Structures are given as C-alpha cells and as structure tokens.
C-alpha cells in the first residue's frame, strides 16, 4: 500500500518519541518480498521434537493430534509460502511474522504448518538470519513445522495453471482436505481464539467477504479432514477452473457452502464482520490505518502487563449507535467508558513494517487490534517510552 504525503505526515506526527522512531527506522533494513501461498501435498517424515526457542521440525507429516477429538476441527494452523524462484531467499516481512505469532499466541495450536517449496539451503540461510531478521524470528515460533510442497501445473480439466496464486488455491484445498485445521493467508491477523468455532460441532467454517455478491472468501477457513465442504470444493474447483481470478476459488467455494448451509452441521458461514471487518478497498483500508488524533491514545490506557482494556460494547452499540466511536465501527477501540469490538481476525491491514504498528499505535484501529502480540513478543523496545 502506498501512503500519500498527507498520510505520511500524520504517521510521523503520531511518533511517540524521536528515539523510538529512530529505532524503528533502523529496523527496516529488509525489503518486503512478494509471495504466494501454497499448502503442501508432499511431506517427509521427521520425528525430531520441537520446543520453544528451538529449530522447527523440517519436512514433517501433519498428523491427527490426540488432544483434538474426531468431532472437532483440528487445532492446527496452515500457512503457505512458495518461492517463484527456488534459488531466492526464504524471506518474510514483519506483517507475515506478526500473523504467525498472533495465531500461536491466541489459538495455542497443536502445530503450525508452514508449507513451502524452499530448498534446504534456503531454509538454512533463513534460520541463520541471512534472509532477514524477521525470518530468523519466525523460526522461534513454538510448534512450527516446515513442510515440503508440490506445485501443481494443470487442473483436472486439462487447463494449465499459470498464476502462482491459482496454484496456491488448488494445493491449499488439498492440504486441508487431507489434514483439516485452519488455513490463513499471511495478511490474516488473528485477534482472539477460534476454539468456540472449532468445537461448535460444525464440520467446516467459512466467512463472506466484501462485495455486493458477498462471496465466501478462501483466504481463511477451517474444516475437519474430508468434510463435505472441502471434498465438494476440491472436486468442483477443477471443473470450474478457467484461468479467471476467483471462479475456482471463491466462486466454487460459495456455490458449495450455500448448497450445504441448509444441512447443518456441514458448514457454518460467518458474516463478513466476524472475520474481516475491513477489505482491500480504499475506504476500508483508510478506516483501519487512519489516525484518530481526537481520541485518547491506546498507550495511555495500557495495563502494566502490556494489555489494552476491553469493554462490553453490546448495550451501547444497539441502544445508542451514534455514540459508538469511529474506531469501534472500523475494528476496535479501547478505553474507560468506551467500547471494544474485536473480530476473530483482521485482514488487509498492510502492516508491512513495524513503523506502521508503532507510529499508529496510539490512534489507529489496526494497530490497536494487533498491538498485544508485538508488545509481548518484543517488550523491550516498545516499552521504553520517553
């Protein structure tokens, strides 16, 4: 996302101190690397145990966890990162690392599977820090598993798959079909636990996206292995594939979900605000990132343990909607006498660099929502305020 000069001035005006700003600027030494996401269908067993602050398991086979009952959606998270050029660095941006840390903290998953076609040499460089400091921190995520990937070239109808994004669509569905769990794009930032949905009795959970047609979005969804939703989608997307952007993904998924929703517990379709109060549209992005100088800084309301206070919004939201602060209507707000609307996840926050998190921390909806994770993970630099 490109910020205009006016927005940049607003961002800089929100800086908490000159020292903090300089620290953040010095931390931006690694460029954002474009990526696509492809879940794995090819895995190699590895029995090496993993614990916090140790190296993740490499090329592991996703398995059913005994702590998850067959009646529930597995408590696992799946991310995918495919290299268009396998000789390139396995490199991650700050926002991508933040997403995985948030899933780890809020969901406490039995495993986080990162599916990639990166060769062993690239993984070693990434682990050593040669591919960027955010990538090195990624390798410290508890219960992280690196999984090898096979990249598809053709749909079952014979149509060649050219776009990386389309390859991702096909293989992520195959991975969730085989193993179940929750799939997330890297621009999905978990904000609270989804256990209530995983254990709701539904075999699959999806959500609608922005737009007049209200299609079901394929950027975040969850299901049991071989559920009706994922089986029908896996079959239908091959015949629906034409090379168009989302006919086989969101389009095919919407057809399947709207067919099954009348037969619970096959699928639960969540409304847009439950998972994604924002979107990729300009107005929604502005609502997430705009500065609210007329409201109390979230930092001024922080508790000693680094948490922001939360308040029940339901009574005021329905009885006096005109009193709902702007940040509540666009994602989250906190403070004495205020309300707090926290969706399950937020998307398209475009938090590519930590500067956007901190410089907008006091006054933006996106930063207020995602603040607890970087504070808890890296408390020192953020807590030293002038």
UniProtKB/TrEMBL annotation:
InterPro entries: GlycoTrfase_DXD_sugar-bd_CS (IPR007577), Nucleotide-diphossugar_trans (IPR029044). Gene3D superfamilies: 3.90.550.20. Residues 319-340 are annotated as: Disordered. One of its GO terms (biological process) is carbohydrate derivative metabolic process. It holds the Pfam family Gly_transf_sug. Belongs to the glycosyltransferase 32 family. This is Glycosyl transferase. It comes from Beauveria bassiana. The lineage of its organism: Eukaryota, Fungi, Dikarya, Ascomycota, Pezizomycotina.
């Amino acid at each position: 996302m490109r910020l205009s000069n006016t927005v940049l001035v607003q961002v800089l005006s929100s800086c908490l101190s000159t020292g903090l700003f300089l620290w953040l600027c010095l931390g931006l030494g690694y460029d954002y690397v474009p990526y696509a996401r492809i879940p794995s269908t090819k895995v190699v067993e590895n029995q090496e145990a993993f614990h916090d602050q140790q190296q993740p398991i490499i090329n592991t086979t996703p398995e059913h966890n005994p702590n998850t009952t067959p009646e529930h959606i597995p408590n696992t998270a799946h991310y995918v990162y495919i290299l268009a050029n396998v000789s390139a660095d396995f490199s991650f941006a700050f926002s991508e690392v933040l997403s995985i840390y948030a899933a780890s903290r809020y969901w406490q998953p039995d495993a986080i599977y990162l599916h990639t076609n990166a060769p062993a040499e690239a993984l070693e460089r990434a682990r050593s820090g040669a591919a960027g400091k955010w990538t090195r921190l990624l390798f410290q995520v508890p219960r992280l598993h690196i999984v090898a990937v096979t990249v598809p070239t053709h749909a079952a109808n014979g149509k060649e798959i050219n776009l990386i994004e389309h390859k991702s669509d096909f293989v992520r569905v195959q991975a969730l079909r085989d193993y179940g769990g929750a799939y997330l794009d890297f621009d999905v930032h978990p904000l609270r636990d989804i256990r209530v949905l995983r254990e709701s009795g539904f075999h699959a959970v999806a959500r609608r996206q922005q737009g007049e047609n209200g299609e079901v979005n394929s950027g975040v969804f969850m299901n049991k292995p071989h559920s009706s939703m994922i089986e029908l989608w896996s079959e239908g997307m091959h015949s629906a594939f034409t090379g168009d952007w989302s006919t086989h993904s969101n389009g095919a998924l919407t057809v399947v979900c709207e067919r099954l929703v009348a037969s619970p517990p096959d699928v639960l379709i969540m409304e847009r605000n439950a998972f994604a109060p924002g979107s990729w549209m300009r107005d929604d992005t502005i609502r997430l990132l705009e500065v609210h100088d007329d409201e109390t800084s979230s930092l001024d309301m922080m508790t000693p343990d680094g948490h922001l206070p939360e308040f029940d919004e339901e009574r005021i939201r329905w009885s006096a909607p005109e009193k709902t602060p702007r940040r509540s209507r666009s994602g989250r707000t906190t403070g004495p006498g205020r309300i707090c609307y926290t969706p399950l996840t937020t998307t398209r926050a475009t938090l590519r660099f930590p500067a956007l998190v901190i410089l907008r921390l006091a006054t933006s909806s996106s930063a207020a929502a995602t603040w607890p994770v970087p504070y808890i993970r890296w408390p020192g630099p953020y807590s030293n305020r002038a």
